[in-house]
Amino acid sequence: MNPIVMQFTLLDAWAVAWFMVCWIGYSVAAEFTPLARYTVSTAMGRYRREWMCRMVERDVRIVDAQIHGNLLHGIGFFATTTIFAIGGLLALIGATDRAVEVLSELPFVQPTSRVTWEIKTLLLVMIFIYAFFKFAWAFRLANWYAIMIGAAPLVRNGSCADNEYVERATRINKLSAAHFNRGIRAYFFALATLSWFVDPRLYMVASALVLLVLINREFRTRVVVRL
User: Fold this and answer.
1) For residues 178 and 166, what is the distance between their CA atoms, to the nearest angstrom?
2) Which value, in Å, is the radius of gyration of the alpha carbons in the chain?
3) Fewer Cβ atoms within 10 A, N terminus or C terminus of the chain?
4) Nearest to 111, CA basis, from 179, 171, 199, 24
5) If DSSP codes are grouped into helix, strand and coil, which group holds residue 57?
């Protein structure tokens, strides 16, 4: 048998499988099923379109530019932070022996090998790389939307119901928000993955807790009711 495979227990395999079920299952349910209509993201999507409708009616769009600038700042902050996280994790791989030694001295921590530690760290690296791509794409889409704010035609005494420009701008705005949300979701599950360094059973519990938190914030928050 492959020596790397031998480093993993059946419990580790179940923990990773449960983690993937929680993450992928939630993402599919919240974005690609009829349940998506009840999320706070969908509710905010309606307000994004309303924002576009009001924006094309304004002669001066300084307020729109300021709001969008704040959104860009948030996306850029997370993209930069993700790069730092990836760099720190890669540096941690270089100090594996010392990290394993320190961790083994802590109580209630399951003994781990060098190979297992590196695989766990690489999983975190892959999660943050995924998050970076999501934030980077959200940032680029947001920049395109900034151009559309500047180029938006002025509409007076008109309805935005059939305004093609409003629809295009709204789609870009919503798509940027969707990719940003996926990046934030990766952060949540990365925090759950940290518990795997302690014990795979704790990893399964942490994944379930993150799932419950996401469900509560996306489907059950009072914001959805009020919107």
Assistant:
1) 18
2) 22
3) N
4) 199
5) coil
